[in-house]
Amino acid sequence: MSIVWAKLGISVISVLLLMLMLFRKSVLTKWLENQGVRVTLLSGWVLFRLLPFIAIYLIAGLATTSDVNGFWDEGSKASQGMIVYRDFWSPYSPLYAYFLGIWLKIWYDSKMIVLTMAVMDGVALFVSWHFFRPFQSRGVFLFNALVYYILPGALVLCIVGAQEDVWMWLFVALAYLVRERKVGVAWYSFILAIGLLMTKAIFVLILVPLFLIEKEKIRFMIPMIIVGIISLGILYPLVGWEFTQPMDEAQTLRAPNIPAILNPWFNNHIGVGEKFWNWIGLVASVGLGCLAAWRLRKADFRIMLSRVWVVLYATMMVVQQSAYSNYIFLFLIPLVFYVINWKSPVQVILLLIFNILCVVHPSYWWRLGMPCYMSPQDMVSSTELLTDYLMQVAIVLMTGYFVWLAFPKKSQRI
């Protein structure tokens, strides 16, 4: 449980620092109005990404753990020219391992995986500056950027967990910025297609609401179809149907999610683990995302995307039985920069608690042996299991609250 206590300790320190920042928010925001964006973002990255990396992995000499070792297995083999899905298993899109492999050419060590994630996180935040700048002053954006850097859901999941989920937001925001430069729908669609090939299969979910509100639907689809055909033309002769390996992730049972917390109350009679739960999760998340997009179809694209992104992927985190709370890293940027009202003590306090729980729970659950509760007696059979179950319930309820915040109300149908 040492990793659990370490994550909890880092999270508590982060939250205390954030509370001090929030107490002096007006002063800091005013000061940041006169600071350079690039310098401030880079300074924040050095303080809250590079220095923690150096302290944890180079000075303390701690070894990489968990997902990092899986990424190392993929990236190291890809860097040696092995074929994804054929020579090594991967739950990610085909270009993901090769992108990691490029970085490993610089430093052939699993720690380089963590540094890569830190760099990509910094790039995602820089792209977000250009994405959100029409709606936020420099001081407000930079204050939110520092908050994001320090939040446990970003700091711990990036530097300790080396999660890549923020890449998805990076690609969708970058695609919009390219389109904004009036280069046409084709390049916008092409970057989205590359994003799908670079990240994971769930990236395809956002394409459904984007297609729904897209006026130039044919031009939107053509680049994706071309990229898809070329990808299949390369992959199928090399690996056959093994390129469907990422879809196997949908069969992996994780927690917390709605089926997991309901299952014990129905004595394991709701079919947890069955494929129909995957379909229910898919319909629920994409359906809510499409409804939110349709309600905001006349709004600025950035407003629409920020809300739809949180609605879609936060919903997915608690309805899809293969999802787990690390997915907070996927939607944390739009949640922090656009959805949360930083003048609301309730929203801020819940966000901080939510971050701590989402960071700590995956490691706690894993070290308990990934329990699946079959009956109410299972939940109370030990203090550790009861703690785990209560954390699951809290995460699901708070996720629902943030989905509700992001979902456009009738008064927000612009």
TrEMBL record:
Asked whether the UniProt record includes Transmembrane helix among its keywords, one would answer yes
Which keywords accompany this UniProt record? Membrane, Transmembrane, Transmembrane helix
Q: What parts of the sequence cross the membrane?
A: 6-23, 44-63, 112-132, 139-162, 186-213, 220-239, 276-294, 301-318, 324-341, 348-366, 386-407
Highest taxon of the source? Bacteria
Protein name, per record: DUF2029 domain-containing protein
